[in-house]
Amino acid sequence: GGQAPGQAQGATRVPGIAKVIAVASGKGGVGKSTVSANLACALAKRGARVGLLDCDIYGPSIPLMMGVNERPLVSPEEKLVPLMNHGVKLMSMGFLLEGDQPVIWRGPMIMKTIQQFVMQVDWGTLDYLLVDLPPGTGDAQLTLAQVLDFDGAVVVTTPSPLAFADVVKGIALFDEVDVPVVGVVENMGSVGCLLY
Predict the structure, then answer these.
(1) Which among 193, 182, 191, 195 has a CA at the least distance from the CA of 24?
(2) At what angle do helices 163-176 and 139-148 cross, to 10 degrees?
(3) Residue-wise burial string across 80-105, b where 16 or more C-beta atoms lie within 10 A, e elsewhere
(4) pLDDT truncated to tens, each residue of the chain (196 aa)?
(5) What number of other Cβ atoms are within 10 A of residue 56's Cβ?
(6) What phi, psi does 178 have (nearest 5°)?
């Protein structure tokens, strides 16, 4: 999709990537990264070319979930070469951190890092790039939505009545930047289901 009216003028469109989909949640601990990993693997199994970008830099869990934990190589063009498993190209801050060191960056530094992640990774040609966002609906998520020019968003929640308010906040966040919410996933119920 092209740039939506509400998105920032500097919105990034990565050449070679057909659709960029955010996977978001109003708060942590609802299984957002699990949904991201499973959705990526399911799309790849159906024959799509899929990339998964782990933007949850405070708690990157995609390396563990996807069974990959090594340093990415750098191409002759000085781009990071994604790692791969289960047919999915992967990039995560977890690949670049030393051990379990905490990330203590703030606002602008985080945004710059994530922009570099997107633009300095040699994704090649993809049908889908799934972006596992940090949990929450604050400035970091809003800025990412403006910078990355998402084609759609999936909001992950749990069956708890308290979680409904977080779903409303998540949908409102994407409405603000004219990104369509293409699904709401209720996770951790007796049966996981697509609600929206």
Answers:
(1) 182
(2) 40
(3) bbbbebbebbbbbbbbeeeeeeebee
(4) 444 444 444 566 778 999 999 999 888 888 899 999 999 999 999 999 999 999 877 778 899 999 998 899 999 999 999 999 999 999 998 887 766 665 666 667 777 777 777 778 999 999 999 999 888 877 777 777 877 889 999 999 888 877 778 888 888 889 988 999 999 998 877 654 555 4
(5) 24
(6) 55, 40
* Residue 43, SS3 per DSSP: helix
Give the pair of three-digit tokens for residue 31.
């299984």
At 135, the amino acid letter reads P
Q: How far is residue 150's CA from residue 148's CA, in Å, rounded to a whole number? A: 6
The single-letter code of the amino acid at 77 is E
CB–CB of 48/127 below 8 Å?
Answer: yes
The model's pTM: 0.85
C-alpha dihedral sign at 65, 166, 149, 17:
positive
Kindly list the distances between the CA atom of residue 112 and the CA atoms of 21, 140, 171, in Å, as whole numbers in the listed order: 20, 11, 25
Alpha-carbon dihedral 108, 129, 175, 154, rounded to 10 degrees: -110
Residue 152 identity (one-letter amino acid): G
* CA neighbor of 148 nearest in space, from 123, 185, 184, 183: 123
* Rama region for 103: left / alpha / beta (φ>0; ψ in -120 to 50; rest): beta
